Amino acid sequence: MTKPLEGIKIIDFTHVQAGPACTQLLAWFGADVIKVERPGAGDVTRSQLRHVKDADALYFTMLNSNKRSLTLDTKTPQGKEVLTKLIKESDVMVENFGPGALDRMGFTWAHIQELNPGMILASVKGFSDGHHYEDLKVYENVAQCAGGAASTTGFWDGPPTVSAAALGDSNTGMHLAIGILTALHQKNKTGKGQKVAVSMQDSVLNLCRVKLRDQQRLDALGYLEEYPQYPHGEFSDVVPRGGNAGGGGQPGWVLKCKGWETDPNAYIYFTIQGHAWAPICKALGKPEWIDDPAYNTAIARQDKIFDIFAFIENWLSDKTKFEAVDILRKFDIPCSPVLSMKEIANDPSLRASGTVVEVDHPQIGKYLTVGSPIKFSDMTVEVTASPLLGQHTNEVLADLGYSQEEISALHDAKAV
Ligand code: COA
């Protein structure tokens, strides 16, 4: 069956995580993604955090599946010539170099447009063009700090905290993929390409918009009723770190279950959804709370919310997190066990849905990776092994019309 993005050719000038996550997604959906890497070295993640000596690291394999690899030194005249041909024949070029690197390579946006007016140039940078930090190089945690996530994550008595989720990297890649698909849609109508730029700071902030909401509510009211600081603690003039608070309209918290003393993940997340109060009381064996005016509204509960959570923890003390969720789900209570990565790796539902997939790699053997989180009724996303460095160099050059002699000459000149 034809994949939706079949026929779209993408020059993948990305490295580390933000860019590769974007192009991997497009490759899963059928685009021909040609990863361009420096000869002899390649993407730095090929060698970072290896668990098999001299083999591609999981950091690389898990972000570069379904792609082809072309080695090309774009700083040599021959390499520039190859890249020029590639630009003329491609639909999209994705890059996440440090600021100005593409221009210094000689491939300004103006030049790329001259070569191919239909080209979509998609870029990730730490900060957006014109921002007072636009010259900064940025990695994941830097972006989490710049985008407002770190100042609002963690506990109030601890420092700003970064999330394990790649809010700066993969999240930015997902934003970029949306931008690319939008530009491709527009190109179908106009025939013209355009530049699509996404900054890591902006992408983090886009996921932190509820905290900007809270800042404005705090400015207006001086307190935030859904934060643990209310009503017994104090607020300053900035959105505080709320620990594990629900953050939306429903109070919630991470609660201990049986075995928490030895198992670091023997917890559930419990949400007190307003209209689920009666079922919650029934589930907890506290029917007298259902109509008690001291408990039966969210406002009435607010000043004793941690006493309620303490009561629920007591109820949980003889139940594992899985047993607890099995009881609570019958009462329609939004909750989940806190799953460890080991549990996720072995979760049969995630395997069955293709969200966790096993891939065979020529150097490291079988490994697990995260498959497409987007499911389609007319397409099954197959995840294939990431390419070895330069695995498709000759093939891509031949596709571009280079003869065997010319390809050998490019190798001799160390341009590929
Ligand atoms: N052939 C020749 N040169 C190449 C090349 C190739 N195939 N691929 C890359 N290079 C060169 C670049 O032209 C650049 O050269 P220059 O600085 O002399 O002009 C050089 O490699 C370094 O590129 P750069 O991207 O700046 O790498 P870095 O290791 O110093 O910085 C980052 C890494 C991630 C901090 C930086 O790329 C960055 O800030 N990117 C934007 C934000 C981002 O995506 N962050 C990472 C999220 S995972």
Question: What keyword list fits this structure?
Answer:
six-stranded parallel beta sheet; binds coenzyme A; single chain; 416 residues; elongated; alpha/beta
Structure overview:
The chain is α/β, with parallel strands linked by helices and 416 residues long. It is built from 17 helices and 11 strands. It has helices at residues 18-28, 58-61, 77-89, 101-104, 109-115, 140-146, 170-190, 200-207, 209-221, 277-284, 298-302, 305-316, 321-328, 341-345, 348-353, 393-399, 404-412, and strands at 9-13, 32-37, 68-71, 92-95, 120-125, 195-199, 252-256, 267-271, 335-337, 356-361, 365-370. Strands 3-2-1-4-5-6 form a 6-stranded parallel β-sheet, with helices on both faces. A hairpin with a 3-residue loop joins strand 10 and strand 11 (365-370). Helix 6 (140-146) packs across helix 8 (200-207). The longest helix is centred in the middle third of the chain and has 21 residues, at 170-190. The radius of gyration is 26 Å and the shape is elongated. The mean pLDDT is 97.
